[in-house]
Design a protein that fits this description.
This is Phosphate ABC transporter substrate-binding protein. It comes from Paraburkholderia acidisoli. By secondary structure, the chain is an alpha/beta fold. The protein has 2 domains: 10-87 and 213-295, 3-Layer(aba) Sandwich (D-Maltodextrin-Binding Protein, domain 2); 93-210, 3-Layer(aba) Sandwich (D-Maltodextrin-Binding Protein, domain 2). It contains 9 helices and 11 strands. Strands 8-7-6-9-5-10 form a 6-stranded mixed β-sheet. Strand 6 (111-114), helix 4 and strand 7 form a beta-alpha-beta unit.
Length: 297
């Protein structure tokens, strides 16, 4: 963060190009009270580790799982009630039908690939498999490619590291992995089936019951920004809101703005992160915010 007397602070910001952020990124939504220096990498998630380990950014998006871990380990960031990305996750576990049909519980005793154990997509689809389909997650061996964003975290005992350069999608297609937890990189292959039966309708039914769209990334700021420049934080929230209002192509069902509107979804992320041994202790929703960010609406 850089400031000069009487000038608006300039914040090092890591934020990707989404429909809901486009108006901020292209300059249609700006502020004379804060300047966002969009200096993060592409893709933005490549900057998450530097954010929580080195305080490289003052503001920006962070995966909800990464933020929960950061908060649990005392990192100096606070949450804004502003989801940046989110989606249904029921379709994010796949397998190759050529090697036989799989029901969700069939992955118990098997090896399942996932980029990192703490990946946010993995949190949500594992939680769905556990709570909707009775899968004992401790009986699955999670085959990972790398560590998580927090240096303090160690993968659970039922995780194993794949050789460097391994391709989880290809290993799933080749039958070397029983299944894989994947997002946009799920192979577009006619042999691939979702582990959750009829995943699209299952997601719709789940939303009808829970009224939650799983959050992937939310906006955060360094706690010093909020303490020293609360007006800048309020301006960022205004900018996020106005950018959303100008967005095109946003799904009809998308995580809302506001603390109370997101309380249930955040609480679910906390519960499932604790259950899956991703955070070392329980967190309260309200402790993720400070007096400034918790009052945003």
């Amino acid at each position: 963060m850089s400031t000069t007397a009487g000038a608006a602070p300039t914040l090092r910001t890591n934020l990707a190009d989404y429909a809901v952020t486009k108006a901020m990124k292209d300059g249609r939504v700006t502020s004379d009270r804060v300047t966002l220096d969009y200096c993060g990498p592409t893709p933005a998630h490549n900057g998450f580790k530097a954010m929580v380990r080195e305080n490289q950014f003052d503001a920006g998006e962070l995966a909800i799982v990464t933020f929960l871990q950061a908060r649990a380990y005392g990192k100096p960031y606070v949450l804004l009630p502003a989801p940046i990305s989110g989606r249904f996750q029921h379709h994010c576990a796949g397998y190759n039908l050529d090697f036989g049909h799989l029901d969700p519980k069939d992955i118990e005793g098997q090896q399942v690939g996932v980029r990192t154990y703490t990946q946010t997509t993995a949190l949500w689809i594992r939680g769905i498999l556990r709570h909707e389909y009775g899968v004992d997650l401790d009986k699955v061996t999670w085959m990972t490619l790398g560590d998580g964003h927090l240096a303090e975290f160690t993968d659970p005992a039922n995780c194993q590291r794949l050789p460097k350069g391994s391709s989880i999608p290809q290993m799933m297609l080749d039958g070397e992995l029983a299944a894989a937890l994947l997002g946009e990189d799920m192979p577009k292959d006619p042999r691939v089936r979702t582990l959750v039966p009829d995943a699209q309708n299952a997601a719709k039914d789940w939303f009808a019951r829970e009224n939650v769209v799983p959050i992937n990334h939310m906006f955060v700021v360094h706690e010093n920004v909020s303490k020293q420049h609360p007006e800048a934080v309020r301006e960022i929230y205004r900018m996020i809101r106005e950018s959303r209002e100008q967005a095109e192509g946003v799904p009809a069902v998308f995580p809302p703005l506001g603390l109370e509107a997101n309380r249930k979804g955040i609480q679910l992320a906390i519960d499932w992160a604790l259950d899956q041994k991703i955070i070392p202790h329980r967190l309260g929703v309200d402790e993720l915010f400070d007096d400034v960010t918790g009052a945003l609406d």
